[in-house]
Design a protein that fits this description.
disordered C terminus
Amino acid sequence: MSTSDLGAFLKARRGHVQPADVGLPAHTSRRVSGLRREEVAMLAGVSVDYYARLEQGRERNPSPSVLNAIANALCLDHDQRGHLFRLADLAPTALAPVAAAAPQALKDLLQAWPHTPAVIINRQLDVLAHNALAGALYSQFTRIDNVARMTFLDPAGAHFYSHWNRAAESCVASLRLALGHVDCADAVRRLVLELSAASAAFPVCQGELRPAARSNLS
């Protein structure tokens, strides 16, 4: 199918999703039915310009991870997600479960590295476990819970990294990849909304990054 079909489908679906459906405030005056382009872009972790090009048919090579992220932002069900991928001439990516806790074998491995700070994180950058030296390294943070939250929201984050901008962009890139996985997208979307509301730097870093390159993996 053509990119115009893809754009028409995205625009139509955007009009059916209300702000409250994705945790956004609905009390502001709105000139469009449903979500604005910039809201879909924020929830999907792509730039507004990139998402606009998709709707306008000017972007011809969206990656599977970007499509998954947009499908999550638009609350697409299984059949609608499959249709979105077919419009982009791609096969839907297989889903893999996200670990809710670190496997015991990895926890044991952490303890085998007493002289190296080590942490175990999942796709949305939650810290599932850390060894004693990592605990000491991050002791100035209020909580060792999520790398993105620590970087953008904890006052210690601004002074902890010697190159904060690089660390911040790395966090945003990781969250963007995580948005492409259906099984953790809701948790990532909530985190993105939290960071966007509480950190002036997060939307800036989010806008500077490019969407992931097209992949042939399915």
